[in-house]
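Team,

Forwarding the record for the chain on the shared tracking sheet. I've put the sequence and predicted structure together so nobody has to dig through attachments.
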Amino acid sequence: MAMSAYSAGTASRAAKLSGIAVSCKRPLRPYPESCQFGAFRKRCSDRRLKVSAQSADSLKFRRGSQADASSIFQMTLKESMNPLGLKPERFVIAEDEAGHKPSTLGFGQLQSHGDTGSDSFLELRTLIVDPAHRGKGIGTKLVKELLRMAEGNAVWLTTLENSIPFYAPHGFVEQALDQQIPKSLWFEAAAGTVVARIVAKQRLVVLKREMDSRL
């Protein structure tokens, strides 16, 4: 659920409230002592880039299935996020196919509300990246894949104020609560605002990515 740099503990609590569990920007681990100078440092840097490229190449997306229900539920509970509405078929699963058995790196869902008419809309929800794989751009790639599935339709989400920089590059813009926000999101934002201010010391915001007629 690009974030501002503050303590990891505060970031974790804030992310859990926002419906997104991805890493905030953390400083890179320092180079080992043997990598501090000249050619040694360059070799270490090249080695890092190589590992990153390998991870990107092995990242694959697939649609969730009933076999993913347990892992989705457990990871959502672990992040203290809302465990309701977790239909596996709505999820996109990010997997690492580098090993003998694919491992789940993260997931997110695109939920459709309403059938037709003005009350129908799409909501991006339950974006979670495994803690061991955060800071690698997996959350960003999941958002792009979910928006691709939206096929140009407008997409809404609720999140914490510090997550706005994460979503802004994808076209999401904050919406004032007095605008025409879907009723279910308005009530969610109104109820969650009090909790967000007490626990995370932040505002809960509603974001929208407008319809893209080019898609």
